Amino acid sequence: MSATCSGKTTLAKHLNRILPDSVIIHQDDFAPPQELVPVHPIHKVQDWDAPAGAITWPRLVNFLKEVKKTGKIPPDHRSHDHLNEQKEIKIDEAVREKWIAEFERLKQQLEARRHERIIWGLVDGFLLYWNKDVIEQLDVRIMLRVPHDVLKQRRHERHGYHTAGMSFP
């Protein structure tokens, strides 16, 4: 699992811009309603980091299976990521164009060899590797390691984020 504020969503969005036929699936879109989030036994506050209760795992797993089968985000799905602060991190245009061309070439090669359409599903979330059924749906796994001081600074600068049922200051 990569820590919160480690750059997972930023990386997913950059990859989405260069990978042909790609979609992003945000773990936070599968958070339960606020009243169902477990309370931390010691601190007596809702524990949005507790893997067992912070995500509605069966719903996420079924969603991943459907996207993997169809190559599409179901039309009734509404992500809440657009409500979160969107920090722009520039990438050199020549580098971006180089990777777009490279991934398009790779996609065409794979599709010709496999005789099937390639869709890149980018799954973004810090609890994903906790659930074995989610792991089974992932063909490639990436973990970001970020120094503690950098994470602390990024968390301090974050103005909040939104899930399906809640906004956080």
TrEMBL record:
Record InterPro entries:
P-loop_NTPase
Q: What is this protein identified as? A: Uncharacterized protein
